[in-house]
Each structure stands twice: as structure tokens, then as C-alpha cells.
Design goal:
Elements lengths: L1 H37 L16 H14 L4 H19 L5 H4 L5 H45 L8 H21 L3 H8 L8 H10 L3 H17 L2 H8 L16 H4 L10 H13 L2 H20 L5 H11 L2 H34 L1
């Protein structure tokens, strides 16, 4: 475990060093560029009664510059263009590019951290729900398969049951269509019905889209199937543990246990299968977390959700405020890295419990 922690620490230090280098580099460059661009036009910024959107004032300003600085026509034109751009950006409520080019300030750091905490809460809630949903759905599928295998074949087909089976197939098809749909596709179709910036909407979209839930349900189901074929299952059966998967059978074989938080089946062989499958699944959380973060980034960017971290990241890329971009990327990286560390610690502790 110490070796894994050292690897995580080393990689975090390297990535942090690289990102901080670029952060300070872009911060210094933006400050230098701003000071350089502002210096020639500083005396003219606060000119009274000047409306530079009016062509008359523009022409008047150009003539005034030529009058005060004769023989410097090229320089005067450059100053005039810079001042006109400054005034246009200052009056634009949408771009506000002049203010945005100030770089990473303490106020902006607080604002970004506030947006990051919102992103982190959505990420944590979505990860917890997918952790629960993946196990519940995979366990339900596993038990239903065992139940079908234990039932004798019935050649006579009930017409009503046949119709219900067709409805079930159609329902599963529609559910798969939704679960595999890209998040922004679902969001655009629902954005007029819901507040797309709400916490509940973001979490729901993160859980039910991009194939996240169904893909990792299949992985957990594969772990359950693999564990059910191992030798310790036969040993458990020889020790008279219950192996009946029908509802109401001994060993807490109930629907409430399947969809409960602990998912315990004392005295049933499924209890050991479930614990070992969960142990095998723990390292997969690292991959799942990275996949989830990518999905959340795409959702926020695609929906243009203002005051959210990933939309702000896209906006600052547009303004080329790379120091702020580096800071936000660093926060997202730390989220991924801390999730990996937590998953490795949890897996190691579980392994130690089994060894003892």
C-alpha cells in the first residue's frame, strides 16, 4: 500500500508542478501583455463626453491625435484602434474581455473554488448513486438468471405471458436507448421542462446517461458470474449454506435485501459471492470516476450552464485566460487523483480483512 501511495504522491507532484509552472507562466504573460496594451491608451481612457461608437467622435479623436503628435500617423492609428477596442469591450455586457484579461486574482480563486465545490458535490452524489445502482441492478439480474435456471422448462406458452414478455423486451430496449444516450442529447430534450442547472437534474443526468450505469452494471454482473463458478462456492454448499435463489427462500432472499444498502444474505452462498464480487469491483471505481468526470464536463459545457465550473473552463478557454484554465484543470485532476487514492485504500483494507 505504501508503494501505491508513493506512486500517487509522485504523480500528483509531477502534474502539480507542470500545471503550476504553466499557471504562473500564463499569469505573468497576461499581466505583461495587459500592461503593454494599456500603456499607450491610458491617458485617453477617461476622456469626457466621448462616444467612440459614433463615427464623428472617432474621426475627431484621430484628428486630435494627429494635431498633438504630428508626423506619427502610424502610431496614432495604432493607439486609436486599441482605444476603440477597449471601449467596445468595456461596453459589451456579454464579453467583458478587458476585465477577463486581468488573470487569476484572489477574488477569482474564491469564485472558482465555489464553483468547484458545486461540481464536487454533483460528482460525489452521482458516484455514490452509480455505486449503489450498479450493484443493485447487477445483483437483480444475477438472481433472476438463477431463478430461471432453477425453473423447469414450460413448453406451453400463455398468450398473456407472451404479451407481457414482448412489453418487457420493448421496455428494456427503450431503457437501453436512454441509458446509452449522450447526456447532452437527453438534456436538450428536457431543458424546457426542467432547470438544467439544478443539482438534482445534473445528478440524474450523470447517472442515467452516457452508458455509465449500464456499462458498469455489466461489469459487476460479470464479477458475480465469475465468483459463482469458483471452488469456494462448492465448499460453501458442502457446508449446508442455502443456495435457493427464489424469493422468500432462507438466507434473506428478498427484494428488500437486493435493493438495500448493505445487501447482506446471511447463511446463503450469495453472501460470499457478493462480498468477493464487490472486492473485485473496487479498483474499477477509479475508471468509473474518470468516466463520470468526463461526462459531467461534457454536460456542463454542452448545456452552457452559467456559474458552473466546466462552463467557466470553456469560457476562459475562449478568452484565453490560461492561468484560470490551468487552475481549474488542477482542481479536476486532484478530484480524479483523490478518488484513485481512496479506491486503493479501500481495496487494500478489504484485502487485509480477508487475509486476517
Amino acid at each position: 500500500m505504501k508503494r501505491k501511495l508513493l506512486e500517487h504522491l509522485f504523480s500528483a507532484m509531477v502534474v502539480t508542478g507542470v500545471l503550476l509552472f504553466f499557471l504562473f507562466f500564463f499569469q505573468y504573460r497576461s499581466q505583461q501583455a495587459m500592461a503593454h496594451n494599456m500603456e499607450p491608451i491610458r491617458p485617453f481612457i477617461n476622456l469626457p463626453a466621448s462616444d467612440f461608437n459614433d463615427p464623428f467622435y472617432r474621426a475627431l479623436f484621430m484628428e486630435t491625435l494627429d494635431l498633438y503628435y504630428p508626423g506619427q500617423t502610424d502610431r496614432n492609428q495604432v493607439i486609436a484602434k486599441q482605444l476603440f477596442r477597449y471601449k467596445e469591450a468595456e461596453l459589451s455586457s456579454q464579453l467583458q474581455s478587458v476585465q477577463k484579461e486581468k488573470g487569476l486574482t484572489l477574488k477569482r480563486i474564491y469564485q472558482i473554488i465555489g464553483m468547484y465545490m458545486g461540481f464536487l458535490s454533483v460528482f460525489a452524489a452521482t458516484l455514490a448513486l452509480t455505486w449503489y445502482g450498479v450493484q443493485s441492478l447487477a445483483l437483480w439480474r444475477f438472481i433472476r438468471r438463477k431463478q430461471r435456471l432453477s425453473q423447469p422448462p414450460n413448453k406451453a406458452v400463455d398468450p398473456k405471458k407472451k404479451g407481457l414478455n414482448r412489453l418487457g423486451v420493448m421496455g428494456r430496449f427503450l431503457a437501453s436507448l436512454i441509458l446509452f444516450s449522450p447526456a447532452y442529447t437527453l438534456a436538450y430534450s428536457l431543458r424546457t421542462e426542467f432547470d438544467t442547472g439544478s443539482f438534482i437534474f445534473m445528478v440524474t443526468l450523470g447517472v442515467l446517461s452516457n452508458g455509465l450505469l449500464i456499462n458498469y452494471t455489466n461489469k459487476f454482473y460479470a464479477f458475480l458470474m465469475s465468483e459463482s463458478r469458483k471452488g469456494y462456492v462448492e465448499t460453501a454448499l458442502a457446508k449446508n449454506l442455502h443456495s435457493d435463489y427464489n424469493w422468500g427462500a432462507p438466507g434473506n432472499m428478498t427484494r428488500a435485501a437486493v435493493f438495500g444498502l448493505k445487501k447482506r444474505f446471511p447463511g446463503h452462498v450469495l453472501d460470499a459471492i457478493m462480498r468477493n464480487a464487490r472486492l473485485q469491483y473496487l479498483p474499477t471505481i477509479k475508471e468509473q470516476a474518470s468516466f463520470l468526470i468526463t461526462g459531467l464536463i461534457i454536460i456542463e459545457m454542452a448545456l452552457n450552464i452559467h456559474a458552473h465550473l466546466c462552463y467557466e473552463l470553456l469560457q476562459q478557454l475562449l478568452y484565453r485566460n490560461m492561468s484560470e484554465v490551468m487552475f481549474m484543470v488542477l482542481l479536476i485532476y486532484y478530484t480524479v487523483k483523490l478518488t484513485e487514492v481512496a479506491a486503493d485504500i479501500a481495496h487494500t483494507r478489504k484485502m487485509q480483512q480477508y487475509d486476517n
